[in-house]
Specification:
By secondary structure, the protein is mainly β. The chain is built from 1 helix and 18 strands. Keywords: Signal.
Length: 263
């Protein structure tokens, strides 16, 4: 499952009667997406759906699609939990995934992913823990572990994230003899999720998230040393936010999927 791709534009303008203060009035952008439509030209690659987002101010509450729902829980201004539920035809919820986040000195320290909850129980079938270490503002190292039901941890791999201008530009991940390196190039426009409170702290948790939008993804691995390149194009509104995202497959010709946004 893709990690998450994510009402109206509200511009707060502070002015006063003084002409000097008017000249330095501040514009605060509170643009948030209302809906995200996922469109797959090839039905073998995915099912078309529309996701509806709800907020409490600029805190995201939920993202609901026809057959799934993601619920977010905050602790102050940081996201502490994300829960994913499967929905049946009667909209009954079955919990399938949970992610717990912990922070240290205002930065993400640990991410605990739990998958597979039998009958909505509290016991997960699989647990992966990721621990982040900040070498600098531009480099974050991480180790990830599998966790048994008894709490025993086994290291499964490690990696590093390179950051620049609010975007992750490189993700290198090693597990055993396997290594995958992914590099990203960005535009200078607004990512549709940039104003959601707390998303900027989640590093690579939200696929493709950054201050701007990914236009090119290159991936190499020990199994496939020749780079696989994926291009993405956008149509923007007058505020520089995408209203349509088109992702191409590695051929650069065929459309893999499209995403449409309303604000």
């Amino acid at each position: 499952m893709k990690k998450i791709l994510f009402f109206s534009a509200l511009m707060l303008i502070f002015t006063s009667c003084s002409s000097d203060e008017e000249s330095s009035s501040e514009n605060l952008d509170s643009t948030l997406p209302k809906t995200i439509s996922f469109i797959y030209p090839n039905e073998n690659l995915g099912t078309n759906s529309i996701g509806t987002l709800t907020y409490d101010g600029n805190k995201i509450v939920s993202l609901t699609r026809e057959q799934s729902k993601i619920v977010f829980t905050y602790d102050g201004n940081t996201i502490k939990k994300q829960e994913v539920f499967d929905l049946d035809f009667q909209k009954n919820e079955t919990k399938s995934k949970e992610v717990l986040y912990a922070y240290e000195n205002g930065k993400l320290k640990t991410r605990i992913l739990k998958v597979g909850f039998a009958d909505n129980g509290s016991e997960a079938l699989s647990t992966i823990k990721t621990v982040y270490t900040y070498t600098s503002d531009a480099l974050v190292n991480y180790n990830y572990y599998s966790v048994s039901t008894s709490g025993q941890e086994k290291k499964e791999g490690e990696g590093s994230l390179e950051l620049k201008d609010g975007n992750i530009i490189k993700d290198s991940k090693t597990s055993g003899a396997s290594k995958i390196t992914t590099t990203y190039e960005f535009d200078s426009k607004n990512n549709p999720l940039k104003n959601i409170l707390g998303f900027n702290l989640l590093l690579n948790e939200v696929d493709g998230f950054g201050k701007n939008n990914i236009v090119k993804t290159s991936r190499v691995s020990t199994e496939f040393p020749n780079p696989a390149v994926y291009l993405t194009s956008y149509t923007y509104n007058d505020k520089g936010y995408p209203i349509k995202r088109t992702a191409f497959d590695s051929s650069g010709i065929s459309i893999e999927y499209e995403t449409e946004y309303t604000y």
